[in-house]
Structure formats: structure tokens, C-alpha cells
Automatic annotation (TrEMBL):
NADH:quinone oxidoreductase/Mrp antiporter transmembrane domain span: 113-388
This protein's GO CC annotations: plasma membrane
Main location: membrane
Designated name of the protein: Formate hydrogenlyase subunit 3/Multisubunit Na+/H+ antiporter, MnhD subunit
Membrane-spanning segments: 6-23, 28-46, 66-84, 117-135, 147-169, 181-204, 216-235, 241-260, 355-373, 393-416, 446-467, 487-512
Example GO molecular function: lyase activity
The UniProt record lists the keyword Cell membrane: yes
The organism of origin for this protein: Desulfurella multipotens
């Protein structure tokens, strides 16, 4: 696949010219865009390359539909982060540009690996690269080593998982990993560490706060996507109802605890860090419900919960990248860390940073018609259908998860609104430090646009993913603009029509405002003419 080769080439060129930071980041942007196209092409056609090394040892890379979806989401966000870093990276050393290219290259091989050796090598390179990227900020050794310790714990668990399969099958290829419970257990535990799931979340607060904002965005989105991808892959290989139950319980607890911590947090980057924990908990719980429903032969609920997990991933990735980029812009401009001391971003820093924080915050607060509202509606719809389970134990587990997640949504909304209300819309009396920000603003605007467009055309995402049975039409809503949560219909929502109605009302509001302003100006001119004549 030509785009795959181009992606590797661009990342290597980016590392080679790291002494010219701007050029290095430009190659990173080109590489990330190429990876996005790898995902689109791989979703349609797929590809696979296998190399026989020696004595039957084979290494393999390729893209299937699952890895393609994660490639697209991760590298759309990486493209924005790299674009943002062209100007933002001027505040840091040349090493950062080299390491960001290196991280993007290694993650490409994580998502494309089809054997354990390729995966583990790429996984370790990613961990070490991010360790040094965290160290770009002074006095961050403790936080960087905490990150590395948990990362190596994840690596050890994955090594054990892959060793179990090699001992059983004599191959490192993932295709031999079907229906092995011990492998699934150790791999599951290894991957949820990367998702910051309880109780492996203790490193995130201080580390996100210390890391540069573009690196915090990588920790929050592409890195946690690695863990999420791993859990998805494990469940595709081993349909374990026990692991599904653990996923629901740990996911619900993580969502609640992350939301609770974000509600009480006052640090600018720590609050969204705990929000990441909450969102990943929701993703894990949704995937667990899907597996339990599949085990119970509730295939429609299983498909809808699986689609819900993907929508939660899209919502979190786009909104959280937007938030961290906007926070980084504001933080470096106002030189403040505490939410209570920060304000006036929309007015005093830039419209793009203020609007980025506002739109991402509203999305996380599940304000319609944004993508966060759609994904959390889908999650609650999945959980509310727990009555369909015949097994009372499954009903109890999913209902318990639904209660915790409903509380988490409320707590998270409070925390995010606090962040946005104080920082973006508040007043500022601070001294403003000017920084180069052309590409920073461009990246913020692009991500804000994606947050909006992703919900307007959410029915196209459903169609593209192949879940047409959850698209319908009713009354004045044409098919396929209506999303349904079950068959027969259990709940419905139409983000597309909501956006059209909202857009019309907004347009009407501005027309009325312009008309009033025009009449006011005409009246003022008339009065001035009368005064002059007198």
C-alpha cells in the first residue's frame, strides 16, 4: 500500500530534519495524514504483509476493519497535534519534534502489527518516546518515571500473554490466538492499564499536569486508543463472558471515579485528565455490555453497544484533543495553572482557543446536538435495555453500571462546565504573553469544526461502519437521518435534523439582530441630523 510507505517515509524525514523544528513537524503532519488514508483504504480493501525470518518465525503487518477504524481516529487527532506543534513546539527543544515523529511511527506499527514481536517492539518504543517527551518540561522526572513504571507493567503483562500463546502454538502470529482464556486475561489486564482504568489511574493527575499540552493530548487520546484497540482485539479473539463482566464493572467504577475527581479538580490540565479516565471507563463498560449481549444471543443490543463504544471513542478523541490544544494555548499565553486564576480565554487569548474549549466542553457535558450528547445517549440507551437479559445476574450488573454511569455523566458535566465557565467565558486581568500561534489557531479551528461536523453527519458514520439497521426515518425525519437504538424501536434521536433546526434558529437570530442593529443605526443618524438642524 503506497500510502503506508509514504507515512513511514514522512516520519523518517521528520526525524532526520529535527534540527529544523518547523520542517520536522510539517513532515509529521504529512505522515499523520498519510496514516489516515491508510485507515480509509484499509477499511475498504485491507492488506497484509508477512515475512518469514528464520526457522518458521514470521513477522506480519496489515490492516483490517478494526485496526482501520482506530488508525483513522488516532491519526486525525495526530494530524491536528502535529500541526499545532509547528508553532507550539517553538517553546520547547528540537528533541520534541524528533520524538513526536518517532512516536507516530511506532504507533502506526502498533495498529498494523499482526504478530507479537512487531507489536511489543513498537509498544516499547512508544512508551520510551513518551517518557522523554514528558521530560520536555522541567522538574517532571517523578511524573515521567511514574508513567514509565505503569507502562512497563503493561508491557510485562502483554509479554506473559504472548508467551502463553507461543508456548501453545509455536507462533507469534495473532491469527493463532483464538479461544485462549489465559492469553485473553493477561492481555486484557495489560491493555486496561493504557486506558487509565481503576486502579491503574494513579499516575495520570500529576503527569498530565507536568507534560507539555501537545504531549498531554497524545497521552489522553492516541495512547489510550492503543489500550482501547487492544481490548477490542482481545474480545474479538476470546468471547469470554467473565472478562465482559469485569469490563462492565471496572468501566462503570472508572467512569464514576474519574467524573468525581474531575468535579473536585481545580488544575487546568488535571481536570480533563480525569475526564479521560471517565470516558475510557464508559467505552470499556459499553464494550462489556456488547459482549454480554452477544453471549445472551441479543445480537441487536450487542451490535448497538459495540457501535456505542466506537461513538464514545470518536467523541472523546475529537473533543479531548480540541480541549488540550486550547488549554495549551491559553496556559502558555496566560502563564497560569489553576482554573480559578485563569479567565478570559475567549476574549483575551484567541477566539479559536476560547471557542475550542467551549465547544469541546459542551460536547463533554452532553449538550445537544454535539457528538458527546449522541454518544452518551447511545450509552444510556444500551444500559437501559438491561431488562432484555434473561439472566438476573446480568441484569443486576448492567443496572448497577447504568446507575454509576448516570451519576458520572452528571458529575462530569459539572466539572467540565466549571472549567469552561471560569476559563473560557470568565474575565481576565492577567498579563498576556504573546506566542507564535498561527498553526495553533488553525489546529484548534480544524478540531472544533470536526467536533461539530462529526455529529451533523453521524448517520454517515453509522452507515460507513455498516450498521444500517440502526438508521431509519419517521414523521418529518427522512431516512436515514434518524438513529434508533433497537429493533423494534426503543429510542430515537436525529442529530442531523437537530443541527438543521438549531442552525435555522441561529440564522434567524442573527438576521433579527442585524435588522435591529440597522434600525438602531438609522435612528441614531436621524436623531443626529435633527440635532444638527436645530
Amino acid at each position: 500500500m503506497l500510502t503506508f510507505d509514504f507515512a513511514i517515509l514522512f516520519f523518517i524525514l521528520g526525524m532526520a530534519v529535527f534540527f529544523n523544528k518547523s520542517l520536522s513537524y510539517i513532515f509529521a503532519v504529512l505522515g499523520a495524514i498519510s496514516c489516515t488514508f491508510v485507515g480509509f483504504e484499509g477499511y475498504i480493501n485491507g492488506f497484509s504483509y508477512q515475512i518469514n525470518v528464520f526457522n518458521g518465525l514470521s513477522l506480519s503487518i496489515g490492516v483490517d476493519k478494526l485496526s482501520a477504524v482506530f488508525l483513522i481516529i488516532a491519526y486525525v487527532c495526530f494530524s491536528a497535534i502535529a500541526l499545532y506543534s509547528i508553532d507550539f513546539g517553538k517553546l520547547f527543544s528540537k528533541t520534541m519534534s524528533f520524538l513526536i515523529n518517532f512516536t507516530m511511527l511506532s504507533m502506526l506499527f502498533i495498529f498494523c502489527a499482526k504478530d507479537a514481536i512487531t507489536f511489543l517492539v513498537a509498544f516499547e518504543i512508544t512508551n520510551i518516546s513518551l517518557f522523554f517527551l514528558i521530560l520536555e518540561k522541567s522538574n517532571s522526572y517523578k511524573q515521567a518515571y511514574k508513567f514509565l513504571a505503569f507502562s512497563e507493567g503493561s508491557s510485562v503483562l502483554l509479554m506473559i500473554a504472548f508467551a502463553i500463546i507461543f508456548a501453545h502454538s509455536g507462533t507469534f502470529l495473532f491469527q493463532a490466538y483464538q479461544n485462549n482464556y489465559l492469553f485473553a486475561l493477561f492481555a486484557f489486564l495489560g491493555f486496561i492499564i493504557k486506558m487509565d482504568i481503576v486502579p491503574t489511574h494513579v499516575w495520570i493527575g500529576q503527569t498530565y499536569s507536568k507534560a507539555p499540552s501537545n504531549i498531554a493530548a497524545i497521552l489522553s487520546v492516541p495512547l489510550t486508543l492503543v489500550g482501547t484497540y487492544g481490548v477490542f482485539r482481545v474480545f474479538s479473539l476470546e468471547k469470554s463472558v467473565f472478562l465482559a463482566i469485569i469490563a462492565v464493572i471496572l468501566g462503570a467504577l472508572s467512569a464514576f471515579w474519574g467524573a468525581l475527581q474531575s468535579a473536585r479538580e481545580t488544575q487546568l490540565k488535571t481536570l480533563p485528565a480525569y475526564s479521560t479516565m471517565e470516558n475510557n471507563g464508559m467505552i470499556l463498560a459499553s464494550l462489556g455490555v456488547s459482549m454480554i449481549a452477544r453471549y445472551s444471543n441479543l445480537n441487536i443490543l450487542a451490535d448497538f453497544s459495540y457501535l456505542t463504544a466506537i461513538f464514545l471513542i470518536i467523541s472523546h478523541s475529537l473533543s479531548k484533543t480540541t480541549m488540550f490544544l486550547s488549554i495549551g494555548h491559553a496556559k502558555e499565553t496566560l502563564q497560569k495553572e489553576n482554573i480559578d486564576d485563569l479567565g478570559g480565554i475567549l476574549k483575551n487569548v484567541s477566539k479559536s482557543a476560547g471557542f475550542g474549549m467551549l465547544i469541546s466542553g459542551l460536547s463533554f457535558s452532553a449538550v445537544p446536538p454535539l457528538i458527546g450528547f449522541v454518544s452518551e445517549w447511545m450509552l444510556l440507551e444500551s444500559l437501559f435495555q438491561s431488562y432484555k437479559f434473561q439472566d438476573n445476574f446480568f441484569k443486576l450488573i448492567v443496572t448497577f453500571a447504568g446507575i454509576l454511569i448516570a451519576l458520572a455523566i452528571g458529575l462530569s458535566s459539572f466539572g467540565i462546565k466549571k472549567l469552561v465557565g471560569f476559563s473560557s467565558l470568565g474575565k481576565s486581568i492577567q498579563t498576556i504573553k504573546k506566542i507564535p500561534d498561527f498553526t495553533i489557531k488553525l489546529a484548534e479551528n480544524l478540531m472544533s469544526a470536526l467536533v461539530i461536523l462529526s455529529v451533523i453527519f453521524s448517520f454517515l458514520i453509522v452507515f460507513y461502519l455498516g450498521y444500517n439497521n440502526f438508521l431509519d426515518g419517521i414523521l418529518g425525519v427522512p431516512k436515514p437521518a434518524l438513529m434508533v437504538s433497537s429493533r423494534p424501536i426503543f429510542g430515537v434521536v436525529s442529530p442531523f435534523m437537530f443541527a438543521i433546526v438549531f442552525g435555522f434558529l441561529l440564522f434567524f437570530y442573527f438576521i433579527v439582530k442585524i435588522f435591529k442593529q440597522k434600525n438602531k443605526n438609522s435612528y441614531s443618524v436621524g436623531r443626529w441630523s435633527q440635532i444638527k438642524r436645530k
